[in-house]
Amino acid sequence: MLKFIKPYWRWAVIAPLLMVLEVSMDLLQPRMVQRIVDEGIARLDLNLVLQTGLLMFGLAVVGAFGGMSNGIFTELVVQSFGADLRLELFRKVQTFSFGNLDELETGQIITRLTNDVTQVQDAVMMTLRILVRAPLLLVGSVVMAIVTSPRLAFLPLVLMPIELAAVVWIVRKATPLYVGVQARLDDLNQVMQENLAGVRVVKAFVRGRHEEARFGQANTNLTDQSVRAARTVAFMPAFMMLTMNMGVIAVLWFGGKQFMLGNMQLGQIIAFVNYLIITLFSLMMASQLIIQLARAQASARRIQEVLDSQPKVQNHPQAVQDFTLQGRVAFENVTFNYQGEEGDPVLKGVSFSAEPGQTVALLGTTGAGKSSLVHLIPRFYDVSSGRVTLDGQDVRQLDLHTLRRSIGTALQETVLFSGSIRDNIRYGRPDAPEEEVVAAAKAAQAHDFISAMPDGYDTQLGQRGVNLSGGQKQRIAIARAILLKPAILILDDSTSAVDVETETKIQAALEDIMQNRTSFVIAQRISTVLNADKILVLDDGQIAAEGTHRQLLANSPIYREIYASQLGNGGPNNG
Questions:
Q1: Which is the CATH superfamily of the domain at 2-308?
Q2: Which of 52, 416, 482, 516 could bridge across to 440 with cysteines, CB 3.0–4.6 Å?
Q3: Cα–Cα distances in Å, from 85 out to 72, 82, 117, 237, 547?
Q4: In terms of CATH architecture, what is 319-406+487-499+517-548?
Q5: CA distance 481 to 548
């Protein structure tokens, strides 16, 4: 984490120096009290009392200036550090491939970008304040106590090891408990994120009470873990206060004896009590710092886990950057597994090719591997074996940014962002001119319903496009993909919420727009793919049949069965 503090090292150095100033002033105060009692009051010297009182006030003002200034510079460091750390984490998440995001769930990532960063920020703040203040007060108060009364110097040396032993014991107990707190917070955020994202499903199935129970369980787990951690830590202040009060009693007992024997003055005893309290109080502050550091250590590990994670899909060191895709796509004996070498492959030995300008349709049952197949083209995932080539070049040899800029994708799950409809359509080309935005919307059959809205293309969308229907969102997603003018267009079941008539119009428009461009279309309705140049029928991760509609109707039992189930008798004569 230190590299995130480095840009603000000047502030990080000034803050402790100002704390040194405050501590120095604080350590002088008991000596001033001793002087007032032993020299001013004992000798009835009002001038000395007044002068010393004014000096104490001046020292207090200087100390207050140091403390407040330390607080200002500490906040500058902490807030800047936190902002940079959050930004770095967010940037790191943006580099992750789909495989990384499959492993790190949304709730975990949100917790690490928010609560975990806050925990580390609090640790940095306490470090810049207490890590300087506590040791200085501890050492300074012990030295001043010895100087004030060597006869009572043994007391802090007896009490300090007792408190240190308690601190070590509590930290060892509390650290794993705080690790558990962050894990329970992950679970809570995950439940909350799922519930908010799927609130319509919850209401549609009247599962509000079930979700309340899920949240309640996660909330109870977090509460119980937090209470266990807090209960362990709560022992520390009480034990410290007990030790401090015992120390004060011991000073009054032994100091009172020395006073009666004439070996000590009253002011010395008062000053020594103050220094003993400062000594034990500094240990209490140090214990709080150590506990916070223990808690932050758990958060720092989780943050570091994200920062150390390497994208599963990375650019090749000598990636080809300057290329223009013509659109020829070939799969050469491709096998793919989401878990690497573990588990059953999703795709097994897939081989086919698509020429520039062709429309390739993919049919198959749920889980046949259709979406997995098209995800390999823009390298959302990498193949487990075999290779995917574009214009004869392995996609792993091509620059990721340039590759994905050449491929337009409308994913199975339609995702829109808060903002205007115009901004959502030109999400991939923020500088696209208005006429091209409108043309893309018309091709996706979205222009009419957009124009009917009061603000047209300036209509503001809610989170995830909540104020649009499913079909409207899909059409905007298609327009967004079209606007890229890609060499390859991938439509992953992106018209499932669109009526047949509108879908037919979209297909007709795409035929004109996508001339000389390669298209991959995944559809559940067989009517969507009847005119495709090539249809791939996938079954259990393998290509069960390949050809045109007429060829498959004549030669593929699986295709005939799909055709018959949707459009009637699937005999060849109906082709």
A1: ABC transporter type 1, transmembrane domain (1.20.1560.10)
A2: 482
A3: 20, 5, 7, 32, 53
A4: 3-Layer(aba) Sandwich (3.40)
A5: 26
Q: How far apart, in whole angstroms, are the C-alpha atoms of residue 444 and residue 465?
A: 17
How many residues are listed for the chain in this entry? Answer: 575
C-alpha distances out from residue 550 to 10, 327, 519, Å: 75, 25, 20
Q: Which two tokens stand for residue 303?
A: 């943050």
Asked if residue 261 has pLDDT above 80, the reply is no
Q: What is the DSSP string of 449-462?
A: HHHTSTTGGGPEE-
pTM given for the model: 0.70
C-alpha dist (Å) from residue 161 to 240, 285, 294, 333, 334: 12, 15, 20, 69, 66
Angle between helix axes 106-113 and 115-148 (nearest 10 degrees) is 40
Numbered ranges of CATH 1.20.1560.10 in the chain: 2-308
Mean pLDDT of 475-490: 89
Hunting for tokens 């060191």 — which residue is that?
Answer: 317
Assigned superfamily of 414-485: P-loop containing nucleotide triphosphate hydrolases (3.40.50.300)
Residue 369: pLDDT band with limits 50, 70, 90: confident
- pLDDT category of residue 296 using cuts at 50, 70 and 90: confident
Domain with CATH 3.40.50.300 in the chain: 319-406+487-499+517-548, 414-485
Report CA-CA distances (Å) from 465 to 198, 418, 444, 449, 462. 14, 7, 17, 14, 5
Nearest to 326 by CA among 404, 396, 391, 418: 391
Which tens digit of pLDDT belongs to each residue from 192-208? Answer: 777 776 776 777 777 78
